[in-house]
Design goal:
Oligomer: single chain
Order of helices and strands: HHH
Length: 102
């Protein structure tokens, strides 16, 4: 019977890649240790670098969402101030008319 393959989590894959890239552990040693085929390791590495920018995009996306919320809050505040100012000016004009002031 064939041996069932191990399914590695994304964290485990990153950990294995880090060992190679930062600790300079040879690919052959990692493959032997984890029972990987070198093509699997290199596929993970290609995917990691291919999708690496998405990690920064998510951060940017969170910052953009925060800025959008802030802009929406400021626009609401500005709109409320405009309404209050409009009401005050209307009251002022009515008062001027009733007093007969030009």
């Amino acid at each position: 019977m064939s041996e069932q393959r191990k399914q590695y989590t994304p964290q485990e894959k990153v950990s294995i890649l880090k060992r190679h890239l930062l600790e300079e552990v040879p690919v052959s040693e990692l493959c032997d240790q984890y029972g990987l085929h070198p093509t699997v390791f290199y596929r993970w590495q290609k995917e990691f670098f291919g999708h690496g920018a998405s990690a920064f995009q998510q951060q940017q996306s969170a910052i953009e969402k925060q800025q959008e919320k802030k802009i929406a809050a400021l626009e609401a505040k500005l709109s409320q101030k405009n309404e209050v100012l409009s009401e005050v000016l209307e009251a002022h004009l009515r008062l001027k008319k009733t007093l007969g002031v030009p």
